[in-house]
Known about the structure:
Butyryl-Coa Dehydrogenase, subunit A, domain 1, Butyryl-CoA Dehydrogenase, subunit A, domain 2, Butyryl-CoA Dehydrogenase, subunit A, domain 3, 4-stranded mixed beta sheet, 4-stranded antiparallel beta sheet, 12 helices, 15% strand, globular, binds flavin-adenine dinucleotide
Amino acid sequence: MVDFSLTEEQREVRDWVRTFVRKEIMPLEPEVLRRERSGQPGIEPSEMRELQLKAKESGFWGVLTPEEYGGMNLGAVMAALLESELGRSFVPFRFGGSADNILFYANDEQKETYLKPTIAGDRKSCFAITEPGAGSDARAIRATARRDGDDWVINGEKTFITGGNEADFTMVFAVTDKENGAVTCFLVDREMGWKSQPIATMGEWGPAALTFDNVRVPHRNILGEEGRGFELAMRWIGQGRYLLPARAIGACERLLEMGIDYARTRETFGLPIAERQAIQWMIADSAVEIEALRWLVLHAAWQVDQKMDSRQAQSMAKLYGGVKANEIVDRVLQIHGGMGYTRELPVERWYRELRLLRIYEGTDEIQRRTIARNLLKGHASVSGVLG
Ligand SMILES: Cc1cc2nc3c(=O)[nH]c(=O)nc-3n(C[C@H](O)[C@H](O)[C@H](O)COP(=O)(O)OP(=O)(O)OC[C@H]3O[C@@H](n4cnc5c(N)ncnc54)[C@H](O)[C@@H]3O)c2cc1C
């Protein structure tokens, strides 16, 4: 029997974050919008740090980080609930005290140099696998690392790397054995010589293109094992996929609330548009889909906590979240009519941002491919949650 009811403690943690978002994050929204509209970053790193430290005062630090590194280690279900709360604001706030999950595979020396300073917020990383010729088909990567004495020499180009403009080190994936197609992950400091170039997108923040031109990296900077990079890459992507649709739940709830408020007050032909069936159906469909998404996300997160194979559940949550969040923001924009299309309201901002959810960390098509393949190969059953 699957039991998703929250404990008293879980409720308290969730409610604290809900209040934090309402009191500390949402009031920043007008200024964040104003800055973004004038081409500046919505929130400066120092402001983000200040907010993170404020949350830390109440113990909110490293939601998924193990206690031995000073984290809360709250588990996936709780992380999904908290991510949903944060998603209620478009201010891109994240709790401090975390690091990419694969950095925990670092050896003791690497942990001191990369993992711990990242958790502390003193260093910033980025995860670089995608290349101009290799996105969905990550196995097509061409970047190479050639052994030279105690070093490796990396050459190649990466693209669409989140955080690549700010990062001071990257976890980069390069082919180390062409014959066998073996790929290795390297921890590479910016000072070792890689360059980044911002990529303009339809969203409010841009990823980076990274260039490696004979970048020399010591052998000790291999993350995990030589030739086992793909396993790490799949762990990075696979383990936290549920967090993306979790964030979208919050965005959709907030958007639907905005749509409902507007429908109640906007009158046409002598009646609030809320009285019109066309509008009511948009509201009803959105509410049902948010609820369905919530269950898909919680189920995927619950499987992660149970250490079950959660790949099918995570792909379903990611696919449904991307598709439905885009439909919901489109409906809410429609309910607002011309106002929804303006830059006076944040609806168009969410509209642009949520579009990304259908592309990164596995496109809709790739999620469908995974889901269908699991069923066709008998790795998953159509009875889903009931097994
Ligand atoms: C803003 C942003 C941030 C990103 N952050 C990172 C990051 O931090 N690190 C990183 O490494 N990468 C990152 N990415 C890259 C992202 O993961 C890729 O863009 C994504 O995997 C798709 O790859 P692609 O763009 O090369 O599209 P392609 O793989 O070329 O796909 C093009 C189209 O074909 C479809 N398609 C591809 N293969 C199939 C198939 N077999 N069957 C049916 N349809 C198919 C795709 O779904 C898509 O619609 C980011 C991308 C963006 C836009």
